[in-house]
Amino acid sequence: MTSHVADPPAPAITRRRRPFLAPVWLSLLAGLAVVGLGLALWASATNTIVVVVPSAQGELGSIDNAPLSAAGGQQAQMLARRFATSSGPDGLSAIYVSDTRRAQQTAEPLAQLLGLRPIVLSNRTGTGIAGKILDQHTGASVLVVCNRQIIADLIDALSGHHIELTGARDMYIVTIPRYGPARVLQMHD
Predict the structure, then answer these.
(1) Residue pLDDT, tens place only, 62-106
(2) Is 38 part of any domain?
(3) Residue 131: is it exposed, middle or buried by C-beta count within 10 angstroms (0-12/13-18/19+)?
(4) DSSP for the chain, written as a single string
(5) Is the pLDDT of residue 6 over 90?
(6) Number of domains in the chain
(7) Domain assignment present for 145
(8) Mean pLDDT across the stretch 114-119?
């Protein structure tokens, strides 16, 4: 007797190895890369804040570089109280003053409270001061105490905004984002 062994049936469906989930994984990986890049850009988009304050009132007289008057001393103390808690990583990182006695005496009480040493500006142009601040304090908050003659030029150099000086004791806050236009806030004292 002879036996016949039957041949195995041919497979009806041939199977190929296809990376079925590859499109899903690649899409998820691309999405994560975009989110990571967005977060990195968002973290690096910091603002530089420059507060510009005119020197306090000086003694009346014929002295060219007059000291502060009694009212000017009170204005300097008010400035110190206004910014007294603004040191540290989220507060003022530097205080710039022009080379006049009034500007230095205006910033002195605040500098003592914060433990900062004022940086005396020998440059009398707004463009020169703005360049120094933006080079050395990008992403930080800085106070500048200077003469009224320099204020308009400084704000123009920092923000591109032309301002009219109206009040004698107006304070200007210039916010300079890393991306986008700068903004100027004028505060009347």
Answers:
(1) 577 778 888 888 999 998 888 877 555 567 889 999 888 889 999
(2) no
(3) middle
(4) ----PPPPPPPSS------TTHHHHHHHHHHHHHHHHHHHHHHH-PEEEEEEEEPPPBPPSS-TT--B-HHHHHHHHHHHHHTTT-BSTTSEEEEEEESSHHHHHHHHHHHHHHT-PPEEE---SHHHHHHHHHHH-TTSEEEEEE-HHHHHHHHHHHHS------STT-EEEEEEESSS--EEEEE--
(5) no
(6) 1
(7) yes
(8) 91
What does pTM read for this prediction?
A: 0.73
**Joined tokens for residue 18:** 């296809």
Identify the band that residue 129 occupies on the pLDDT scale cut at 50, 70 and 90. Answer: confident
Asked whether the beta carbons of 134 and 176 are under 8 A apart, the reply is yes
The dihedral region occupied by 72, where left means phi > 0, alpha psi between -120 and 50, and beta the remainder, is alpha
* pLDDT number for residue 66: 78
CATH number at residue 123: 3.40.50.1240
